[in-house]
Every structure is written in structure tokens, then in C-alpha cells.
């Protein structure tokens, strides 16, 4: 009986303990308080865990670079329309000047392609030095007569070139000159090449500036091999070739002094 009573008392005590833990009133003696209820609930219930993003502890921490605040920010490209204006007029002018320079270069190169010592472009027309020689006599009175041209001394056979484009109006024998060539040019001016040794052109032939038309000789009334060169205006007036050619960019007195007759 004693053992059974002890066992029963133990069972009752255990029941009161469980009932107290579950918050069941009427068991275990005194009624539980509100605080006891919350404490028991917290100890026995599965409370939900709030959903949150946990930091990845395996990833390296992001830190500012040393001196990073001093790094220059990427520069943005300027807007051409807002920062610059294209000068179309200047570009057009430059292109035109380039074309003109190329035109001059082609004309001069063509005029000198047969061996002329110098060439220039005047009013879009090429003119060349008629021969390579030494200036020996000018335009005007000489030995009591009028010398109607200039003389350029050079060895026999030195090439003679057409001053500019023209048509052959005389080629062959000539009084005083022995032999000559006369060219008529588009503006009506004529040029005369006298005392020649040989002519390479025929009457009526069209020639270009720089074409070889004859060679220096010593024919006719001549004191030595040279080219006698004259310029006739459109009305037939014989004019001084030196200022006529100098005005167009050819200085015969300077450019022909480097060669002895």
C-alpha cells in the first residue's frame, strides 16, 4: 500500500507538471498567470523564422579602392554640333587651290617634257624658255641699224622650243636669217626664231608650248652660232622680247647666263 501510494503521488505530480507546462487550468494547483502562459508557449511552440537575405560570408567584402576617390571620371565625347562648326567655304577654297596647283604642275611638266629649260603658266597658257644659251645682244640700235630682237648664243644643234602654242606660218629659207621659223599664236602675237641650223616643223603645223621646232645654227648674217628671237604684236609691230617675256614670268637675261656659246 505504501509503495502504491508513493507511485500514485509521483504520477499526480508528473501530471500536474505537464498540465502546468501546457497551460491547462485546474491541474497542478494554482491557476497560471498570463506571464506563465506566454513563458510556457515560448518554451514549447515552434515559432516561425522571419524570411531575410543572409549575406554570403564566402564572398569578399566590397571595399573602396585606395585613392579611388581621386580617380578621374570617364570623359564624355564632345558633341560636334555643339562645340565646332565646319567651315565649308574654307574646305571648298582649299580643294580649289589644290586643283589649280595640280593644273599648273601638269601644264608646266608637259611644256618641259621635250627638254625646255624653264616653263611658266600665264593666263592659263604655258610659256617656255625658247632655248638654253647666253644672252649676248638686246633689242634696239646696233651697229647703225635697228636690232629687232634679242640674241641667245649657244652651240650649233642646241634645241629651240616653241614659246607657246601656235601654228607654223614660216619654215625655211629667209633673207638675212639664212633659215627661220615663225609661229603665230592664238592671241595674234607671232614669234620669230632666226639663224637656225635645221627646222623640224612645216608650214600649217600646230605646235604646243615646249615642242622642239628647230636647232641653233649660224646661217645668214651671223657672227657666231646663236638664236635670234623676235616678238611681233598682232598688228605686226616688233616689240622688245625682254619686258614682254619678263611680264609673263620668263627672265631670259638671268636664266640663260649659265651656258657658254
Automatic annotation (TrEMBL):
Keyword Hydrolase listed: yes
Gene3D superfamilies associated with the record: Glucose Permease (Domain IIA)
GO molecular function: hydrolase activity
Coiled coil: none
Pfam families: Peptidase_M23
Domain M23ase beta-sheet core: 146-241
Designated name of the protein: M23 family metallopeptidase
Species this protein is from: Pseudonocardia nematodicida
Enzyme Commission (EC) number: 3.4.-.-
Phylogenetic lineage: Bacteria, Bacillati, Actinomycetota, Actinomycetes, Pseudonocardiales
Database matches in InterPro entries: Cell_wall_metabolism_enzyme (IPR050570), Dup_hybrid_motif (IPR011055), M23ase_b-sheet_dom (IPR016047)
Keyword Hydrolase assigned: yes
Keywords on record: Hydrolase
Amino acid at each position: 500500500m505504501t509503495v502504491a501510494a508513493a507511485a500514485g503521488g509521483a504520477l499526480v505530480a508528473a501530471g500536474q507538471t505537464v498540465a502546468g507546462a501546457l497551460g491547462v487550468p485546474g491541474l497542478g494547483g494554482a491557476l497560471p498567470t498570463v506571464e506563465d502562459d506566454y513563458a510556457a508557449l515560448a518554451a514549447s511552440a515552434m515559432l516561425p523564422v522571419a524570411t531575410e537575405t543572409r549575406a554570403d560570408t564566402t564572398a569578399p567584402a566590397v571595399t573602396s579602392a585606395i585613392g579611388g576617390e581621386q580617380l578621374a571620371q570617364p570623359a564624355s565625347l564632345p558633341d560636334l554640333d555643339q562645340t565646332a562648326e565646319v567651315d565649308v567655304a574654307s574646305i571648298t577654297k582649299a580643294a580649289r587651290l589644290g586643283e589649280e596647283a595640280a593644273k599648273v604642275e601638269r601644264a608646266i611638266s608637259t611644256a618641259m617634257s621635250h627638254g625646255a629649260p624653264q616653263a611658266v603658266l600665264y593666263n592659263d597658257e604655258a610659256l617656255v624658255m625658247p632655248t638654253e644659251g647666253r644672252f649676248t645682244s638686246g633689242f634696239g640700235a646696233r651697229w647703225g641699224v635697228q636690232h629687232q630682237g634679242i640674241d641667245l648664243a649657244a652651240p650649233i644643234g642646241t634645241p629651240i622650243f616653241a614659246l607657246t602654242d601656235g601654228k607654223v606660218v614660216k619654215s625655211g629659207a629667209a633673207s638675212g636669217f639664212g633659215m627661220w621659223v615663225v609661229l603665230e599664236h592664238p592671241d595674234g602675237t607671232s614669234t620669230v626664231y632666226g639663224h637656225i641650223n635645221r627646222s623640224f616643223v612645216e608650214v600649217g603645223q600646230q605646235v604646243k608650248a615646249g615642242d622642239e621646232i628647230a636647232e641653233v645654227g649660224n646661217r645668214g648674217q651671223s657672227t657666231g652660232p646663236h638664236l635670234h628671237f623676235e616678238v611681233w604684236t598682232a598688228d605686226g609691230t616688233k616689240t622688245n622680247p625682254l619686258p614682254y617675256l619678263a611680264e609673263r614670268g620668263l627672265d631670259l637675261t638671268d636664266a640663260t647666263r649659265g651656258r657658254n656659246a
